[in-house]
Automatic annotation (TrEMBL):
GO terms for biological process: AMP biosynthetic process; ATP biosynthetic process. Pfam families: NUDIX (PF00293). It comes from the Eukaryota. Gene3D superfamilies: Nucleoside Triphosphate Pyrophosphohydrolase. This is Bis(5'-nucleosyl)-tetraphosphatase [asymmetrical]. It comes from Acropora cervicornis (Staghorn coral).
Length: 151
């Protein structure tokens, strides 16, 4: 019998003081289990699209609403790993906060949050998330470089 796949979706939230400035990524630490760190994300509920889940979970877990974010829908990252023997797929989109100083409000699912540089973030993340984050970071830096070369 086929093993049911777990599916989750979330947003790779980042901030920067200027378009070409250093990027900082928002990571949340779970208050359960091994207290691992991830960007905001969660299980896709029946009838929800991945994006609806990503927005709902981001607001629930960090307090950040869609209106406070610039979402890069054309940059989608897919992670595949196993949780307790079941395949899990997690879909992420990068999203920049419009206000660098925006307040983060955790739910009881998380006990801490950090805004971290790419390298510091990668020290806390699982390997598949590290790969996805490095790809996103490169795309964001390339876009900023293209902008400065043009203007
Ligand atoms: N141990 C626990 N004790 C009590 N309540 C619990 C619990 N685990 C989950 N819950 C409950 O489940 C709810 C979570 O629901 P949601 O918030 O809806 O879903 P989720 O983020 O996908 O859950 P989870 O944290 O389990 O997933 P992840 O894949 O990151 O993490 C799942 C596993 O995969 C690992 N993992 C995470 N990212 C990985 C990656 N990229 N590669 C490999 N492994 C990874 C993690 O270290 C972790 O071991 C919470 O409200 C909580 O109450």
């Amino acid at each position: 019998m086929a093993v049911a796949e777990l599916r989750a979706a979330g947003l790779i939230i980042f901030r920067r003081k200027s378009f070409t400035g250093p990027l900082e990524y928002l990571l949340l630490q779970t208050s359960y289990g091994k207290h691992h760190w991830t960007p905001p994300k969660g299980h896709v509920d029946p009838g929800e699209s991945d994006m609806q889940t990503a927005l709902r979970e981001t607001e629930e877990e960090s307090g950040l609403k869609k209106s406070s974010l610039e979402i890069m829908e054309h940059v989608q990252k897919t992670l595949n790993y196993e949780v307790r023997g079941k395949p899990k797929t997690v879909i992420y989109w990068p999203a920049e906060v419009k206000d660098y100083n925006v307040a983060v409000q955790l739910s009881n699912e998380h006990q801490d949050f950090k805004w971290l540089s790419l390298d510091k973030a990668c020290e806390l993340l699982h390997d598949t998330m590290t790969v996805a984050l490095r790809e996103v970071d490169e795309e964001l830096r390339n876009a900023a470089k293209y902008y400065t070369d043009i203007y």
